[in-house]
Amino acid sequence: MLVLPTGSKQEEAVVAKAITGRRNAHIRILLHRQMLLLIKRLHQRLLLATCAGTKGIPTYIPPSMRAGAERSVVGSDMRRRNDENSLRIYHQFTRRHPRI
User: Fold this and answer.
1) Separation of alpha carbons 58 and 61, rounded Å
2) Based on CB atoms within 10 Å of each CB, which residue in 15, 21, 73, 78 is the most buried?
3) DSSP-derived 3-state class of residue 45
4) pTM of this prediction?
5) What is the number of other CB atoms lying within 10 angstroms of the CB of residue 11?
């Protein structure tokens, strides 16, 4: 991470660009130094929170992995279901099963 002296124009430009997501945002937006420091501290806290772990961040958990879900062997059930849905036709002239 690049550490710049507090209150420099480069730091203000970097923070303003990070907040707005636009190029040359530091020209259009003037922020007070105290506000910049507050935003910088909040940004660092957010970075530390995301790097430390995902305890506070909600993530998608599939229904099969949730607490109280039934644990069953899914692979064999899927194969049997695919076999039930398949249809094989025997062609009398070529004596093979053509793919449909």
Assistant:
1) 9
2) 15
3) helix
4) 0.23
5) 19
Q: Which residue type sits at 96? A: R
Q: Which residues pair with 71 in a beta bridge?
A: none
- Which residues make Cβ contacts (< 8 Å) with residue 6, sequence separation at least 6? 33, 37
Dist CA 32 CA 38 (whole Å):
10
Dist CA 81 CA 58 (whole Å):
34
12-61 pLDDT per residue, tens:
666 666 666 665 545 445 556 667 777 888 888 777 766 555 555 667 77
| φ/ψ (deg, to 5) at 30 | -110, 120
Q: At what angle do helices 33-52 and 9-20 cross, to 10 degrees?
A: 60
Q: What is the DSSP letter of 63?
A: G
**Residue type for position 41:** R
